[in-house]
Task: structure prediction
Amino acid sequence: MVVVLKKNVSEEDKKRIKDFLISRSFKINEISGEEDTVIAAVGRAHLEKEDLFTLPGVESVIPISKPYKLASREFKKENTIVEIPNNRGQMIRLGGQRLVTIAGPQMIESREQIFKIAREVASCGAVILRGGVYKPHFSPYSFQGLGEEGLKYLKEAGEKYGLPVCTEIVSPVLIPMMKDYVDVYQIGAQNMQDFDLLKNVGALGKPVILKRSYTATVEELLMAAEYLLSSGTDQVVLCERGIRTFESSTNNTLDLSSVPVLKAHTHLPVIVDPCHSVKHRSQVPQMALAALASGADGIMLQVHGSNGKGFSEAATSLETVQFNKLMHDVEALAPVLGKAIVHIREEKIQNKNTDANASEKKSDKITCAYSGSKGAYAQQAISRYFDDADVDSVPLDSFSQLFKAVTDGKVDYGMVPIENSLAGSVYQNYDNFSRFQDVSIVGSITLNIRHSLLGVKGAALSDIKNVYSHPQALAQCKKFLDQQNEWNQIDAVSTATAAQMVAQGGKKENAAIGSSVNAQIYGLNILQEDIEDDPHNFTRFVIIQANHVARLPDAHQQNIKANMASFIFTTKNEAGALFSVLEIFSKMKLNLTRLESRPITGQSWKYWFYTDIEIPEDTENPQKKIDEVLSLIKEKTEDLRLLGIYSEEKH
Ligand code: PEP
Ligand code: MN
Result:
């Protein structure tokens, strides 16, 4: 059962409630959520609700109807986030807003093999390295794994590339030996109901990936998770990998419909391993993408590298080129799912404290400014780009204040919208790049803009008479608004401000158009979701940093190769000046993806140009290539400034 405590409960009352439950042989767990503090109590003793209600501090008592208790959503409303640290001071979080990819060979075969695969999967975007060392194969005559020797290689390879490691444990007797090597234990499908194994692994308190047996129902999977949870770990990840059905054209039926069911019934993160369901690797990417679309928090993939000829499950293990393509597709899909990707930090990170302004900052977190109020789309972009728990987002009143705060070192970064797929360029910010000389672009992120209609609690669509929002958002929801009966459309400075105004007014006839995040922030209800005319509504943001500060630890400034460069220039005032610059790009076979011209303030009819160019994927050294381009362009331009070389998601 879940005992919900009164908001102002005293520590003394809380202790009395806990002592009472313990005295009746209940196992208890206190959970402080965003809304309530609750005590979850699991046990077999029979209690009358009244026994608890007589205790001061108890608000309500909710029985848990499911046979699994600790794993159920009734027990814990918020998603559990499983945290796995790597050796670069970074926390990989599974179950939050970020998609996690686990990759590596089915089995570790040699030191050389796992190092090669680790390097390849890390450079493509895997964040946890997998590899089997004990294999419960159907045949006793097949390769059984390298055991401890393999674990040593796995750990070393993981450390070299900043990847925590994950491997299957097949027996509790292996725990003392394995515990020095393993970051995440995997319980294989064939052992899902080895209750002794579950109890012993659970007692380690470490992250565990529990695979669904091919003969287990969703409820049986959750009961197995209950064994782990009740033995002492709260770090459990569930993994769907296919179940046995009458179908024989596939190896197993990947039960993706179990993913939303699991997400509804449990707070635990859910991942999917598509490799065991198909007969051939060519079918893995489709199922991996479908898994993420079904709501999975991550994917686990067998990758046997380039030219890999692994002797374990080679037919269903991806080659590196396929894995690389899949990771690009995942990156493109993520914004549609409202998620972002976890990336591993690059190896050499300068200490944040070398920043002269660091002492002024209150916390150890990265700070990133945006223009707008809490809940603005730019704030969502910040929590996607950085890891939510590592960043404080700082609202400011205007874009120029944002550029100034970054220049002055008041914040570490700024999140700057630069163009919208429907509305076009945000010219102000192009101008800010010419005004503020001391900032660079260090990254970019694209956000899928989804609008919702937000109203006060208790309001229905039929109550609405006035709708508030930023003019652009109103324009983007034109079809929806046209269907309504003559609502007054009222402009607001931003979508977040509109939400705030509606909340403060408290009137049922007012509604705002904004992101669903605003509903939570301003205590509003979502009256209708996804009301934008065009689902291809994307805003591209760039992340800026002052030039004079040390590079900060940021998961996105990773070892993924830069693929984009931006710069601004002015040309000589003569015939063919711009053409002579463009000719250089063409000669160097560089794809120019953007060219904007802006008037130079104070100089009538003179312009400066902003350009983005793509750096081809096979470029060995992006910096060198761009230096080369710049030295050629320099002769043809007056002012030339490189804004940054960075990595940009491809769509
Ligand atoms: C594996 O991931 O290596 C594996 C064998 O998976 P499963 O337990 O799902 O069969
Ligand atoms: Mn396998």
Notes: The chain is about 30% helix and 25% strand.
